[in-house]
Design a protein that fits this description.
By secondary structure, the chain is of the alpha/beta class. The protein has three domains: 1-83 and 276-307, NAD(P)-binding Rossmann-like Domain (Rossmann fold, 3-Layer(aba) Sandwich); 84-269, Rossmann fold, CATH 3.40.50.720; 310-388, Alpha-Beta Plaits (2-Layer Sandwich). 32% of the residues lie in helices and 20% in strands. The protein contains 13 helices and 16 strands. It has helices at residues 12-16, 66-71, 84-99, 102-110, 120-126, 147-158, 172-178, 188-194, 214-218, 237-246, 278-298, 330-340, 369-376, and strands at 2-6, 23-26, 34-37, 53-56, 75-77, 139-143, 162-166, 183-184, 197-200, 224-228, 249-254, 267-269, 319-325, 347-353, 356-362, 381-387. The strands form three sheets. It has a seven-stranded parallel β-sheet, with helices on both faces. Strands 2-1-3-4-5 form a five-stranded parallel β-sheet. Strands 14-15-13-16 form a four-stranded antiparallel β-sheet, covered by helices on one side. Helix 7 (172-178) links the parallel strand 7 and strand 8. Helix 3 crosses helix 6 (147-158). It is elongated and about 90 Å long. The two termini are 13 Å apart. The mean pLDDT is 94.
């Protein structure tokens, strides 16, 4: 029986993915096998010895101590793409609201309540103040063309925009697939120079903090619109406000407003609504559940942010998974221990990710318990698991 600890409510669809005869799902346990979390920060969490995995229902993992998890041999998963459509739709909506002055115009119209019985004439006289610009024919620069950014790119292309993409981490084959509607640049400054709109879709990590800062804004067109439906920390909000005050930035739309951005007519603020739909909740919860089950039951890994993706069907007998340092000779030492135990490896797969690697060994027989202890003694071994 596996125990899953939840820190936030997950959809019923996600819960139904678990076999009740194999899993207990609870908010209150000291010894979880896995944690499912949405937005609760876990940086102060003390890891239980039983904890094997944490899955984020969503894409961003900045609320999870990933480095500490890696050192402890705890796999961290996310659900990329599960909420991508929801974020895409709100990004497009916020961009249009910003350049068409929808928010201040709506506030002004509503302020007429209690005045004239027919406000039509007043509205006609006042609407000139709130005239905006169309997005058709404009150029949008998309920073980060992954699960969400690529969808935003396609939607903008279909709306008649020219799309520039910047993503140094996107595989070349994926860029080739997107080139039919995205013009990729290798230097983000090229994007800044040509874009009428800039939309950010990158993770919040140490390398990306304040990615859009005063220097980046200075390189942009005068009157640019900036849209941030990624994470709050990827933009320098003080620099954004200063650029709004000077007129360098015409409008800003964000799902992560700061105090000095509230109440401004040139800022569209939403309260972290990007993934806030029942459909996104259900998609992500199902993905999270499937990934956790596959890892706990068979050691397979998909969509981990700290372990390499490794997955294949099990052989007839037992399976051993090993998370270890990625050093020369490690695989040889592992197979040497297996050979000394008199076992033949039916299937083997080993993949590395940075300083660490993950190995799966399949057998057509039962594995003696003392082999696990021998493998755990190898220098650089982090965690060994046996699957019967």
């Amino acid at each position: 029986m596996f125990t899953i600890q939840t820190y936030n409510k997950i959809s019923d669809a996600g819960r139904r993915a678990f076999d009740e005869t194999k899993y207990t799902i609870t908010e209150d346990t000291k010894n979880p096998d896995a944690i499912i979390v949405h937005s609760t920060p876990l940086h102060d969490l003390e890891f239980a010895p039983s904890l094997r995995a944490i899955v984020r229902v969503g894409a961003g993992v900045n609320t999870i101590p990933v480095d500490r998890c890696t050192k402890a041999g705890i796999a961290v998963f996310n659900t990329p793409g599960g909420n991508a459509n929801a974020v895409k739709e709100l990004t497009i909506a916020a961009m249009i609201m910003s350049c068409r002055n929808v928010q201040p115009a709506s506030e002004w119209v509503n302020s007429l309540r209690g005045g004239e019985s027919d406000p039509g004439k007043t509205v006609e006289k006042g609407k000139e103040v709130y005239r905006g610009t169309e997005i058709m024919g404009k150029t949008i620069g998309i920073i980060g063309v992954g699960a969400i950014g690529s969808r935003v790119a396609k939607a903008c292309y279909d709306l008649g925009m020219t799309v520039i993409g910047y993503d140094p981490y996107l595989p070349s084959h994926r860029k080739d697939e997107l080139k039919q509607y995205v013009n990729f640049v290798s230097d983000v400054k090229e994007l800044y120079a040509d874009a009428d709109f800039v939309s950010i879709h990158i993770p919040q990590n140490e390398a990306n903090m304040n990615f859009i800062d005063a220097g980046a804004i200075a390189a942009m067109k005068d009157g640019v619109y900036i849209v941030n439906y990624a994470r709050g920390g990827v933009v320098d909000n003080d620099a954004i406000v200063a650029a709004l005050d000077s007129g360098k930035v015409k409008g800003f739309a964000t799902d992560f407003p700061t105090a000095n951005e509230l109440g401004r007519k040139d800022v569209v603020c939403t309260p972290h609504l990007g993934a806030g739909t029942p459909q996104a909740d259900e998609n992500c919860a199902i993905m999270a559940s499937v990934q956790i089950k596959d890892y706990l039951e068979d050691g397979n890994i998909k969509n981990s942010v700290n372990f390499p993706d490794v997955s294949f069907a099990r052989a007839f007998g037992d399976r051993i998974t090993l998370f270890h340092n990625n050093r020369v000779g490690m695989l040889g030492e592992i197979t040497e221990k297996v050979t000394a135990a008199g076992l033949n490896i039916e299937n083997l797969i080993n993949k590395a990710r940075g300083d660490y690697a993950y190995t799966i060994l399949d057998f057509n027989v039962k594995v003696p318990a003392d082999l696990i202890g021998d493998l755990e003694k190898i220098d650089g071994m982090v965690k060994v698991r046996l699957f019967k």
